[in-house]
Design a protein that fits this description.
- This protein is mainly alpha-helical.
- It is built from eleven helices and five strands.
- The protein has a three-stranded mixed sheet. Strands 3-5 form a two-stranded parallel ribbon.
- Helix 7 runs antiparallel to helix 8.
């Protein structure tokens, strides 16, 4: 199970010291032997005869950080001044209250979205760090990225990956989000930081709402089916056994049970499989969407019932 840190619990502490690791360190930590070719290269790089070309043979290094050390400590450049103007509309981290959503797996995926960054920190020395905690990774997406680069970065991210959305749905969602943002953008070239962050948050919110709607839809359908099955059971009328000996009563119950599964048994006494029509399912889906959007204060429209 992936850890789901609460952003409010992240201390505003100085950046943690980086942990550098060579392929040998990584192989040792994973309990595997270092590949022979890397061992040979490392031996060659130590040779005095090759010292002038040492940089050509240096083993690549990886930088490891705990999650709290790579998350932003300041969010003021991610939102416009009017959004940040009212302190009462900000949470303890200085982010707008609308970034706190009561949706399935929201905190986990909100943190993942914050790991999409526009540039590397200077102290990372050009290396994209590996997050020590599993389930999180840093993605670099520049403000001047093309629409296709943004779409692919969002689709290939880990945002709501556990919910099994197919790639086509993720792609269409990302593409629509980027196109809508470009239509609102005042710049014909690169995005501003708030516009860039707005794309990421809208993509996150779209997937979150879809995930929540699917869960609520399944629960609603199951509840309706259970109720219909219970109502159907009440309408099945079987003649009660007349007072007699226990053996006679048990015999009649056994006969009734046997007959109820027979094709010759009156259909009105047989329970029918409870199902929902396609239109009923569509109506339930629209109702689920409508309730969720209203709860979140979104002005989104549910899917067309046509």
């Amino acid at each position: 199970m992936l850890a789901t840190p609460r952003l409010e619990c992240i201390p505003e502490s100085p950046p943690a010291s980086p942990v550098w690791a060579t392929p040998r360190d990584i192989a040792r930590d994973l309990g595997r032997d270092l590949p022979r070719d890397l061992v040979s290269l490392k031996a060659c790089s130590a040779s005095p005869a090759l010292s002038s070309n040492k940089s050509s043979y240096d083993s690549p290094k990886r930088l490891f950080f705990p999650l709290r050390a790579v998350l932003p400590q300041d969010y003021s450049d991610m939102y416009t001044e009017d959004v940040l103007a009212d302190p009462n509309q900000l949470n303890s981290l200085g982010r707008p209250l609308f970034t706190d959503r009561s949706l399935v797996d929201w905190q986990l995926n909100d943190v993942r979205s914050l790991l999409i960054i526009d540039k590397l920190k200077p102290e990372w020395n050009g290396v994209v760090p590996t997050v020590i905690e599993p389930g999180y990774r840093i993605i670099v997406l520049g403000l001047d990225a093309s629409d296709q680069d943004i779409v692919h970065a969002l689709v290939d991210s880990d945002i709501y990956k556990e919910h099994g959305f197919d790639r086509q749905f993720r792609y269409q969602t990302a593409q629509y989000t980027v196109q809508a943002a470009r239509a609102r953008s005042a710049s014909a070239h690169g995005l501003t930081k708030p516009e860039w962050r707005n794309i990421i948050e809208n993509y996150l919110l779209n997937l979150a709402c879809e995930a929540q709607c699917r869960i609520d839809y399944k629960k609603t359908c199951s509840a309706i089916k259970r109720q219909r099955a219970a109502d159907q059971q009440q309408t099945i009328t079987l003649s009660p056994p007349s007072p007699s000996s226990n053996s006679s009563t048990l015999l009649k119950k056994a006969l009734l049970t046997s007959l109820s599964t027979s094709p010759d048994f009156p259909s009105k006494h047989r329970p029918h499989k409870v199902s929902l029509s396609r239109r009923e399912k569509h109506q339930i889906w629209v109702q689920v969407q409508t309730r969720l959007y209203a709860r979140l204060g979104l002005d989104w429209q549910p899917d067309d019932l046509a």
